Amino acid sequence: DAKTTQPNSMESNEEEPVHLPCNHSTISGTDYIHWYRQLPSQGPEYVIHGLTSNVNNRMASLAIAEDRKSSTLILHRATLRDAAVYYCILRSDSSYKLIFGSGTRLLVRP
Amino acid sequence: GAVVSQHPSWVICKSGTSVKIECRSLDFQATTMFWYRQFPKQSLMLMATSNEGSKATYEQGVEKDKFLINHASLTLSTLTVTSAHPEDSSFYICSASGQGKNSPLHFGNGTRLTVT
Question: Low-confidence residues of chain B, pLDDT below 50?
């Protein structure tokens, strides 16, 4: 499974945008980029996913580099409820599995 | 949105006993479910992939005879921790995949198992 690299932690101020980076230099052409987040003592929650084009949904935006070797999850206005561990995961088109890395712990300051 | 229900949310059992955890997809059919475990301050570790009507596929290092998985219907998968020991104490999380190879995974809220 292709691996991803994320910073261990990031901090943000409430109501400011947050850009969470992810490097995946060994991504293959059929790998989708998935983002999930996990609040304390809860199961992960789906955030967004994409293949090549940038994606937007009600939770976030996903910006994918042209060479697909990196991506950025964008939270447009961070709230205290967005404090969580964010996981960037590559999911192969041939496999349903999600292999979690260590993720980025996002701290949101009031 | 799609919902996955996991039960119980927490359980305490004595060493040597078995514990069953249920995972249900409430509003969609899940041909594939996954079981993860998570130790404190660590990431999720995939234990096994559960396919409806067939044997589960276990990840390397996971004992299939200790962690019994049954996926008898399109909406229910169960994980039984047999002869539990304190080192099995962990947070167990299931997830289910909807139709389509690249549909998102939906996760249950986890089961906190404590073995005394």
Answer: none
**Residues A88, A6: contact at Cβ < 8 Å?**
yes
At residue A96, the pLDDT reads 77
Q: Is the peptide bond before B8 cis (omega within 30 degrees of 0)?
A: yes
Query: Smallest CA–CA separation between B46 and chain A, in Å?
Result: 7
> What span, in angstroms and rounded, lies between the C-alpha atoms of B59 and B48?
6
Rounded to whole angstroms, how far apart are CA atoms B17 and B89? 13
- Indicate which of B33, B51, B97, B101 best probes the interface with A, i.e. most A CBs within 10 Å of its own CB: B101
The predicted-structure confidence for A40-97, as pLDDT tens digits, reads as follows: 999 999 999 999 999 999 999 999 999 999 999 999 999 999 999 999 999 887 777 8
Q: Which residues of A touch B6 (CB under 8 A)?
A: 43
